[in-house]
Amino acid sequence: MLTKLIDSTKQYMKYEKDTLTTVVELPSQANKKLNVKELEQFNNAVTSQAGKTLMYY
Description:
This protein has 57 residues and is mainly α. 84% of the residues lie in helices and 0% in strands.
């Protein structure tokens, strides 16, 4: 049972790291000149990451 808890914790840590990394990198993309399609993709990425971040708070 302890092994399962440790594995779950490791998976959650990876998820949190990936989410935080993406959230930190997104503003640097906003400084670039984006065409309409790239802007739409950027907005979708921001919305997706915000949903993941706010889901736990």
